UniProtKB/TrEMBL annotation:
The keyword Nucleus does not apply. Residues 159-191 are annotated as: Disordered. PANTHER family: UPF0716 PROTEIN FXSA (PTHR35335:SF1). This is FxsA family protein. It comes from Streptomyces poriferorum. Residues 173-185 have a biased composition (Basic and acidic residues). Keywords: Membrane, Transmembrane, Transmembrane helix. The chain crosses the membrane at residues 19-39, 45-62, 101-125.
Length: 191
C-alpha cells in the first residue's frame, strides 16, 4: 500500500563537507613529510628543539594577544555611558584590532609542524594581519547582506525589538490559529 508521498531524496553534500576533510588530511601528510625531510637534513634533535620552541613561542603569542583583548574589552566597558569616567573618548585605535588573528598565529605556531609554523609567523607580520583582517571583515559583511530570511543575519536583526527611545521590549507573538478554536485564555507571559 502506497501513501502517495514521494520517496525521500538524499541531500546533496556541500563542497566544504567534501573538500575540508581531504584538505586537512593532505595538510597533515605534508607536515609529517616536512618534519621527516628536516630530520634527515638537520637531525632528530633539531626537529625536537624546533617543535619545543614553537610551543613556547605560540604560548607567548597567545598569552599576549589574550591580555590585549581583555584590556581592550575592559577599556570598552569602562567607556560605556553610565560608567564612572565615561567621557566622550574616541574608540580604540585600529592598532588594537586583530587579536583574533594573533591568537590564530599563536595556535598555528603551537601546532607541531613546519608549514603551520610558517603560516603562524606570517600572521605575526602586521601588514599581513591587517590585510587578512580587512578581507575577513568585507567577506563577512557581504555574506551578512546577502543572507536570506531564517539565516544567522536575520536572527541577529530579529533578536530584539527596540522601541524608538532605544529600550528593549521583551515579548512573544501569539497568533490565533483558526484550526484550533480554543477559547481558553492563555496565561500571561512571565520573565
Amino acid at each position: 500500500m502506497t501513501t502517495g508521498t514521494p520517496p525521500p531524496t538524499a541531500r546533496k553534500r556541500s563542497r566544504a563537507r567534501t573538500f575540508v576533510p581531504l584538505a586537512i588530511a593532505a595538510w597533515a601528510v605534508l607536515e609529517i613529510w616536512m618534519l621527516i625531510v628536516v630530520a634527515d637534513v638537520a637531525g632528530g634533535f633539531t626537529v625536537l628543539l624546533l617543535l619545543a620552541a614553537g610551543v613556547v613561542l605560540g604560548a607567548v603569542v597567545m598569552k599576549r594577544a589574550g591580555r590585549r583583548a581583555f584590556r581592550n574589552l575592559t577599556e570598552t566597558l569602562q567607556q560605556m555611558p553610565g560608567q564612572p569616567g565615561a567621557g566622550g573618548s574616541s574608540p580604540a585605535p585600529s592598532s588594537t584590532r586583530g587579536n583574533g588573528f594573533l591568537m590564530l598565529a599563536g595556535l598555528l605556531i603551537m601546532i607541531p609542524g613546519l608549514i603551520s609554523d610558517v603560516a603562524g609567523l606570517l600572521l605575526l607580520v602586521p601588514p599581513v594581519r591587517s590585510a587578512l583582517s580587512g578581507f575577513a571583515e568585507r567577506s563577512l559583511e557581504r555574506r551578512m547582506r546577502t543572507a536570506g530570511p531564517g539565516s544567522l543575519s536575520d536572527a541577529f536583526q530579529q533578536a530584539r525589538m527596540h522601541r524608538p527611545d532605544g529600550k528593549v521590549v521583551q515579548g512573544e507573538v501569539i497568533r490565533e490559529d483558526p484550526s484550533h478554536p480554543d477559547d481558553t485564555p492563555r496565561p500571561p507571559l512571565t520573565p
